[in-house]
From TrEMBL:
Keyword set, alphabetical order: Membrane, Transmembrane, Transmembrane helix
Organism: Croceibacterium salegens
Cellular component, GO annotation: membrane
Keyword Transmembrane helix belongs to the record: yes
Gene3D superfamilies attached to this UniProt entry: Membrane associated eicosanoid/glutathione metabolism-like domain (1.20.120.550)
Protein name: MAPEG family protein
Length: 147
């Protein structure tokens, strides 16, 4: 049976995405009520967006939730490739944990004080880790692994 270690950060990132979903709605729904937003009117008026109606601090959580459905989807696919090829232990699992830790840190920065250059630095570092994982997956698939 292939090593399960690489799947642990996958599950953690999926769970974190749901934590961000909860945080988003825990702040967004009260803010929408306070702003007296009518969802149906909002849906039918392309000029009115929640970014224009709600406070930025509320929207930061929503933006981050959306970001967790972008680059991390590549991580999920690569992690599955590493798992299926039996290359999901050791350094790949450590890199997977590093990637997830950086994405969680990115979320916390974006959802709280949202300094763009801090966020960008974390994002860039997580992207480099993801590139390393992609290279390891490519080696496993095209060259038969680390042997």
């Amino acid at each position: 049976m292939p090593e399960l270690s690489i799947l642990q950060p996958v599950v953690v990132l999926a769970a974190w995405t749901m934590i961000m979903w909860l945080w988003m709605y825990a702040t967004r729904i009260p803010a929408m009520q306070a702003a007296q937003v009518e969802p149906d009117k909002l849906a039918n008026d392309p000029e009115t967006t929640l970014d224009r109606v709600l406070p930025p601090g509320v929207q930061w959580k929503a933006h981050n939730y959306n970001h967790l459905h972008e680059a991390p989807t590549v991580f999920y696919a690569v992690a599955l490739v590493l798992f299926l090829t039996g290359e999901g232990d050791g350094r790949t699992a450590i890199l997977g944990c590093a990637y997830v830790g950086l994405r969680i840190l990115h979320s916390l920065v974006q959802a709280t004080f949202n300094k763009v250059m801090v966020r960008f630095g974390i994002f860039a570092l997580s992207s480099i880790v993801l590139m390393a994982l992609i290279a390891l997956a490519a080696r496993a698939v095209f060259l038969g692994g680390t042997a």
